[in-house]
């Protein structure tokens, strides 16, 4: 009898171990599903990043269940170039999408490998909910598409995104899948409440502008309040989406990545190469792999997402990608030989906002390179000059600017007509108010960053390393400020051929 009890106990123990192993993500058959959640025009203004006004419980919970990256960045702080970067794993000058798709900017070639084409080779069922906004769209042959427009008027409620995700999950059946869900919040217009969400919206009296904005008036506070209301609505949508994932029973084998596509549309944010434009939230949840509640402070970029996904799927990561697999950062402990620098870039994204800038930062210092110093920055004008044809409501009016400090006024002047270089000590000056480029005490740091930026441009064959290419691009952009090209079906920017040829002529 005793022997039989021992055998029975041993059988039960083995059964429990086997069950645990069967349920463990580490041994689930097949590669993980991949859910990429993208929000519009928001930096890390979330509760899990310590923001005092954010109402984001679902994203905060996602961070508690996964890894939150404190220093995550996009290479370009405007929609189309940013999305092309994370979808292709390449910098804007490498893939060619150096402006808005709605203004005829495009990738050099539709054969550019990307999330969709590469994961389909592994048998993934692929889907996109929300906008793509990268040209040509044929480069991304998703198996499933829903809510293809930008939905900036929010006619489609956040519930629609979850409903379509449920439909996608049903169609994927037992295949591994990749789904990108792209929410319209927090893009302008900052709508206070849509379809009853948020239930209790914030007002101007409840908030203050983000510290990097530099302007604090009742008018600006109203915009800021509604920006946070957009984030609350986004958070609801994320919660509904994750609920649908849970219902499938496959969440245990799903790599979830959440990012903002770039910073918020306030002065020195979207469109700029300041931290307010380039720094974004990045959260990764991967049951059994990512350590819950971990915070990493390494410099990471959205070009790292494709290498991470490919490695997770058991695929070879192309050697020519500038990004890196994030998996070593998903558990505690030091990681050797991680990147030292992070890269940023802008062209202004369309002719009426044209201005070229590069940036490079390490953990403490930030360099901004302006290859056409002393010329008018049209991006800044869209935030600071009410006569600009695209002045945004979340910018700073002349009345707003009468209230700013001398320090902020000097920064706005510098942004409007930039010098050749800008240098910031982000440890002492995280909001980039004090330019140190002429300070002899920082001459060595400045030169080190200039050399590192030049080396990166050479390594990645950046056409804007050649001043002739800079001048030719700007000349063509400024010649098309009447925007008549928007009515020309066959219009094609000359850089698409000239830059591709220039890159082909450079050594690898």
TrEMBL record:
Residues 1-29 form the signal peptide. The keyword Signal applies. One of its GO terms (molecular function) is metal ion binding. Keywords: Calcium, Hydrolase, Metal-binding, Signal. Its EC number is 3.1.6.1. It comes from the Bacteria. Residues 32-315 form the Sulfatase N-terminal domain. CDD domains: SGSH (cd16027). Belongs to the sulfatase family. This is Arylsulfatase. The lineage of its organism: Bacteria, Pseudomonadati, Planctomycetota, Planctomycetia, Planctomycetales.
């Amino acid at each position: 009898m005793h022997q039989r009890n021992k055998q029975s106990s041993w059988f039960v123990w083995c059964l429990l171990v086997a069950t645990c192993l069967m349920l463990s993500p580490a041994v689930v058959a097949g590669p993980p599903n991949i859910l990429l959640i993208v929000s519009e025009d928001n930096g890390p203004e979330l509760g899990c990043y310590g923001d005092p006004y954010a109402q984001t419980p679902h994203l905060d919970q996602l961070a508690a269940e996964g890894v939150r990256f404190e220093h995550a960045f996009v290479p370009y702080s405007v929609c189309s170039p940013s999305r092309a970067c994370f979808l292709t794993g390449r910098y804007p000058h490498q893939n060619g999408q150096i402006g808005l798709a709605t203004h005829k900017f495009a990738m050099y070639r539709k054969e550019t490998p990307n999330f969709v084409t590469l994961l389909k080779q592994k048998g993934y069922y692929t889907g996109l909910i929300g906008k793509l906004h990268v040209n040509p769209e044929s480069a991304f042959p998703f198996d499933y598409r829903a809510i293809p427009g930008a939905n900036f008027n929010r006619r489609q409620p956040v519930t629609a995104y979850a409903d379509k995700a449920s439909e996608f999950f049903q169609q994927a059946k037992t295949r591994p899948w990749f789904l990108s869900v792209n929410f319209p919040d927090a893009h302008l217009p900052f709508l206070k409440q849509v379809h009853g969400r948020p239930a209790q919206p914030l007002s101007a009296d409840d908030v203050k502008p983000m510290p990097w904005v530099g302007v604090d008036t009742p008018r600006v506070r109203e915009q800021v309040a509604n920006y946070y209301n957009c984030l609350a609505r986004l958070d609801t949508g994320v919660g509904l989406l994750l609920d649908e994932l849970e219902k499938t029973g496959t969440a245990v084998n799903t790599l979830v990545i959440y990012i903002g596509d770039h910073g918020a549309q306030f002065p020195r944010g979207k469109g700029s190469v300041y931290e307010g434009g380039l720094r974004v939230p990045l959260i990764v949840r991967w049951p059994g792999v990512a350590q819950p509640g971990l915070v990493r402070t390494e410099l990471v970029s959205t070009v790292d997402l494709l290498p991470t996904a490919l490695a997770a799927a058991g695929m070879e990561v192309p050697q020519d990608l500038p990004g890196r697999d994030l998996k070593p950062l998903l558990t505690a402990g030091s990681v050797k030989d991680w990147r030292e620098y992070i890269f940023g870039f802008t062209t202004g994204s369309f002719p009426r906002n044209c201005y070229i800038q590069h940036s490079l930062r390490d953990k403490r210092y930030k360099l901004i390179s302006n290859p056409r110093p002393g010329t008018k920055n049209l991006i800044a004008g869209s935030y600071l000059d009410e006569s600009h044809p695209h002045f945004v409501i979340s910018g700073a009016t002349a009345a707003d600017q009468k209230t700013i400090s001398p320090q902020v006024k000097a920064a706005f002047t510098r942004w409007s007509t930039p010098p050749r270089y800008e240098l910031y000590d982000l440890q002492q000056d995280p909001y980039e108010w004090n330019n140190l480029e002429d300070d002899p005490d920082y001459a060595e740091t400045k030169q080190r960053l200039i050399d590192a930026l030049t080396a990166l441009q050479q390594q990645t064959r950046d056409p804007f390393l050649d001043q002739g290419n800079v001048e030719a691009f700007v000349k063509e952009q400024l010649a098309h400020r009447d925007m008549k090209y928007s009515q020309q079906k066959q219009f094609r920017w000359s850089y698409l051929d000239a830059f591709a040829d220039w890159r082909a002529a450079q050594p690898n």
